[in-house]
Design brief:
Blueprint lengths: L8 H6 L6 E9 L4 E7 L11 E7 L11 E7 L8 E7 L7 H4 L7 E9 L12 E7 L4 H6 L3 H6 L2 E8 L6 H11 L2 H7 L7 E7 L10 H7 L1 H6 L9 E7 L1 H13 L13 E5 L4
Parallel strand pairs: 7-8, 7-10, 8-9, 10-11
Antiparallel strand pairs: 1-2, 1-6, 2-5, 3-4, 3-6
Bound molecules: adenosine-2'-5'-diphosphate.
Adenosine-2'-5'-diphosphate binds next to strand 8, helix 7 and helix 9.
């Protein structure tokens, strides 16, 4: 007599238990405050490089009802629109409702991903220009990690300057490795042209640990030091476009600086010379 086999636990686990579930494919930790992970991409998900989605996990069961609700936060997609997987770059906050759990993700785990991408850090929100500035602090580099891997960025501009300000040197690792990998990317070279990487300028700075370039990017812009370092005259509304993603302080200060150079804020519905988005933290 053959016995009806119960569904094994392993087989049961293959069925997504979460709504909009995606499977984690890779996790890399950089510091005790920063990590990145990759996950599968829903076949139906279309997005523009630079946009964000809501991702998360199921929250703890309600103490009385035992019911669990999804715990979701906005996260910029750090991978480009053409990538078959999705990448996210995240802070770890020990008592943060989501990131205290998210930091323990392992390959094979599932996350919730709502497939409704939105955001202002997209090419469509900027008028044509010659030079594109990316101004990021901390995890605000995530949308630019997407955009510097996007062929359209190099087709639209002669020069792309990625500035990244962090407290400590180790917090620059993700961006530095990313720039190195973009410069060595043979597929991008094939699509955009051999010398595409010459267009990409990387300008990392630290504020609380010694490094070759110290200071907030805002101060370096105000003093003109960044222009002297890069051999650039300055920022002008005719040629320069900018995308900003960081803390509220950075966003407010940069708005003022960019407006001072004559740039106006754009949106999807009305493209102009610069766009801003808050870096999302858990
Ligand atoms: P600082 O060390 O001088 O505060 P955080 O870890 O707090 O999110 O900060 C990330 C980086 O952003 C730090 O290097 C921090 O510099 C910098 N930063 C914070 N506020 C501003 C601002 N208003 N303009 C430019 N950089 C800023």
């Amino acid at each position: 007599m053959t016995e009806q086999k119960p569904v094994t636990q392993a087989a049961a686990q293959k069925v997504p238990a979460l709504p909009d579930a995606q499977t984690v494919t890779e996790v890399q930790h950089y510091t005790d405050r920063l990590f990145r992970f990759r996950c599968t991409r829903p076949a139906s998900l279309r997005f523009r490089s630079g946009e964000f989605v809501m991702i998360g996990l199921m929250g703890d069961p309600h103490p009385e009802t035992g019911k669990q609700k999804p715990l979701l936060r906005a996260y910029s997609i750090a991978s480009p629109a053409w990538d078959e997987e999705l990448e996210f770059y995240s802070i770890k906050v020990q008592d943060g409702p989501l990131t205290s759990k998210l930091q323990h993700l392992k390959e094979g785990d599932e996350i919730i991903l709502r497939p409704k991408p939105v955001g202002t850090l997209v090419h469509d929100a900027l008028l044509p220009g010659k030079r594109l500035w990316f101004f990021a602090t901390g995890t605000g580099i995530a949308p630019f990690a997407s955009l510097i891997r996007e062929p359209e960025t190099y087709e639209r501009y002669d020069q792309i300057i990625l500035t990244h300000t962090c407290r400590e040197v180790a917090e620059l690792t993700y961006g530095r490795e990313l720039v190195e990998s973009v410069r060595a990317d043979e597929m991008l070279a094939e699509v955009i042209g051999e010398n595409f990487a010459d267009k990409l300028v990387y300008y990392p700075t630290t504020t609380r640990e010694e490094s070759p370039k110290m200071g907030r990017v805002t101060d370096l812009l105000r003093s003109g030091e960044i222009f002297r370092d890069l051999g650039i005259e300055g920022i002008s509304a005719e040629t320069d476009r900018a995308m900003v993603c960081g803390s509220m302080g950075l966003n407010t200060d940069l708005k003022e600086i960019l407006e001072g150079f004559g740039l106006k804020e754009g949106a999807n519905s009305e493209p102009a010379e610069y766009v801003v988005e808050k870096a999302f933290v858990g």
